[in-house]
Write a structure and sequence with these properties.
This protein has 265 residues and is α+β, with helices and mostly antiparallel strands. The protein is built from ten helices and nine strands. The protein is 43% helix and 17% strand. A hairpin with a 6-residue loop joins strand 8 and strand 9.
Length: 265
């Protein structure tokens, strides 16, 4: 099997993904990602972090995380100290020969006698006071039970906590031209032009595109961007304009220099 770090590096380079993009998507610091690719395990916080980072990085690159983690365990993870500590010769025999200390029966007899005396005293008290307390006991017991139940049962909140929606790993993008013809160029996270300088006729839409990031160059602002379930109108400045789209975020304006690098209008 190929080296772990080499496998990660080749997958990232093959997809033309910069290390800063991996850091932003996985929330793993760039120095730890480089340590994984260089197999510099001593630079990472510990074996648990190594396996967690390795699993997250592999899933991001669409590799099989189980194979890489298992490879790391077999080649680099040390066995626990308990597994390495041998038993000394004859230790099991010495343990068998040790006699258990004899326990005296005196304390147990004292405790048992105390329980018998206490039980007898409680029985006598119940016989003497039983008649006078029979009518009151059910009411007091019911009241105490109701109070304990009301106290033990926490009040339920009328408003349920809203679950946070998980941010998708990829953005779904669909572009629709307005009343005018629009020049469109769209580049995905790998640097591939998925819409390579085409003209979108009025009212027409592209197919739904999916990637971890999109950078776009429009000939004018008469276009609408649908990102996931939300729709955004481009700023109509009367000149070409560029945007960047990431999963779970609003489109952001590209600088003029970044826009020109994508496609020339």
């Amino acid at each position: 099997m190929a080296e772990i770090g080499e496998t990660l590096r080749e997958a990232r380079m093959r997809r033309r993904i910069d290390m800063t993009e991996v850091e932003a998507a996985t929330k793993i610091r760039a120095k730890y990602l480089r340590a994984l690719e260089n197999e510099e395990w001593d630079l990472l916080p510990g074996p648990t972090f190594v396996k967690t980072f390795l699993r997250t990085y592999a899933e991001y690159l669409e590799l099989d995380p189980r194979l890489l983690v298992e490879e790391y365990r077999q080649r680099f993870e040390r066995p626990s100290t308990q597994d390495l500590t041998p038993f000394g010769p004859g230790m099991s025999g010495q343990r068998r020969r040790r006699q258990r200390p004899r326990r005296s029966a005196g304390p147990f007899l004292v405790v048992l006698l105390g329980i018998v005396v206490l039980g007898a005293a409680l029985y006598l008290l119940g016989v003497v006071w039983g008649d006078s307390s029979d009518n009151e006991t059910p009411k007091a017991s019911a009241t105490a039970t109701a109070t304990a139940t009301a106290t033990a049962t926490p009040a339920k909140s009328s408003k349920a906590k809203k679950k946070k929606k998980a941010v998708p790993a990829r953005a779904a993008l669909r572009l629709t031209a307005g009343a005018t013809r629009v020049y469109v160029c769209v580049v995905d996270a790998t640097g591939k032009a998925v819409v390579n300088g085409d003209y979108l006729e009025p009212g027409k839409s592209t197919k739904t595109l999916r990637s971890q990031r999109f950078r776009m160059n429009f000939g004018n602002g008469d276009i609408r961007m649908r990102v996931g379930a939300k729709s955004y109108k481009a700023a109509d400045l009367g000149k070409p304009i560029g945007y960047e789209v990431r999963p779970g975020k609003k489109p952001t304006r590209l600088s003029e220099a970044a826009r020109i690098k994508l496609c020339a209008t």
